[in-house]
């Protein structure tokens, strides 16, 4: 089976909505692979899988380890791996070196990094040297300390030209798609109309060229989630129920029963 390619994603703009989800492990990647064009190994894994307070402590080695697991669990989807905080901002050379490591050690199809106009020269440098880059604008979680928390972007219409310029800059630099996170719906629509590459929305607009969510959030495995998350499942409640039943069965010695022992 051939994996989804960069040109296929680019051609989806204006055609069919792109389905994207995160995954961090092989079994979850296998489930997502059956339905999505893109699996993102997001640095959200720091919080979702490792219980970190933010994405800032995530390392390149962590991204590669989870990236390898997701590649093993998937066959068809394009796997995109997030570049973690500190692994690409310093220079185009640093970004290329670390992205090349991610691609060489995982076999993934592309990397993602946060930032607009500021990162455009870096994106150009990487793409020219063979690394497909997905950009990420609007609310960029790695900049949480600068932004003063997670704030919806573009509430003040005066800021729209800056956000539009960010999206246009990454597109002109050669990014093959761009995540638009946590922005006012009308701004997301403007960005989607303005750029020639697919926009992948999260907390953005139904008119983006695709959508992405954190898998654990939409499955109901996370505690509190932002309002832009729709819970398509309640796996957290169901897991809690199953674990409670297991604990009760151990305590009343009804587990294991005749069928679960070797005689
Ligand atoms: O880290 C992540 O999961 C992401 C998506 C939410 C876009 O960057
Ligand atoms: Na991320």
UniProtKB/TrEMBL annotation:
Active site: 181
Cofactor descriptive note: Binds 1 Mg(2+) ion per subunit.
Binding site for Mg(2+): 43, 82, 114
CDD domains: KPHMT-like (cd06557)
GO molecular function: 3-methyl-2-oxobutanoate hydroxymethyltransferase activity
Localization, UniProt: Cytoplasm
Pathway connected to this protein: Cofactor biosynthesis; (R)-pantothenate biosynthesis; (R)-pantoate from 3-methyl-2-oxobutanoate: step 1/2
Catalytic activity: (6R)-5,10-methylene-5,6,7,8-tetrahydrofolate + 3-methyl-2-oxobutanoate + H2O = 2-dehydropantoate + (6S)-5,6,7,8-tetrahydrofolate
Entry keywords, A to Z: Cytoplasm, Magnesium, Metal-binding, Pantothenate biosynthesis, Transferase
Chain's role: Catalyzes the reversible reaction in which hydroxymethyl group from 5,10-methylenetetrahydrofolate is transferred onto alpha-ketoisovalerate to form ketopantoate.
Cited HAMAP family: PanB
Protein name as catalogued: 3-methyl-2-oxobutanoate hydroxymethyltransferase
Lineage, broadest ranks: Bacteria, Pseudomonadati, Pseudomonadota, Alphaproteobacteria, Rhodobacterales
Gene that encodes the chain: panB
């Amino acid at each position: 089976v051939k994996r989804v390619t960069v040109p296929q994603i680019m051609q989806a703009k204006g055609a069919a909505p792109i389905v994207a989800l995160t995954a961090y492990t092989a079994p979850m990647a296998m489930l997502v692979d059956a339905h999505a064009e893109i699996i993102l190994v997001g640095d959200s894994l720091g919080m979702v899988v490792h219980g970190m307070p933010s994405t800032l402590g995530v390392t390149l080695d962590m991204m590669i380890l989870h990236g390898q697991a997701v590649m093993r669990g998937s066959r068809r989807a394009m796997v995109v791996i997030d570049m973690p905080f500190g692994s690409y901002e310093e220079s185009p050379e640093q970004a290329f070196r670390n992205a090349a490591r991610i691609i060489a050690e995982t076999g993934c199809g592309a990397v993602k990094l946060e930032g607009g106009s500021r990162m455009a020269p870096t994106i150009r440098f990487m793409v020219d040297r063979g690394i497909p880059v997905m950009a990420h604008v609007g609310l960029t979680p790695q900049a949480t300390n600068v932004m003063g928390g997670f704030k919806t972007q573009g509430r003040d219409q005066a800021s729209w030209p800056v956000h539009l310029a960010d999206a246009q800059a990454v597109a002109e630099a050669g990014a093959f798609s761009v995540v638009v996170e946590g922005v006012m719906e009308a701004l997301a629509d403007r960005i989607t109309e303005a750029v020639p590459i697919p926009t992948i929305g999260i907390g953005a607009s139904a008119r983006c060229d695709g959508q992405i969510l954190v898998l654990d959030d939409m499955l109901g495995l996370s505690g509190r989630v932002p309002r832009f998350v729709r819970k398509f499942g309640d796996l957290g409640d169901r897991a809690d129920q199953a674990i409670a039943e297991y604990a009760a069965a151990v305590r009343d010695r009804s587990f294991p029963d005749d069928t679960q022992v070797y005689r």
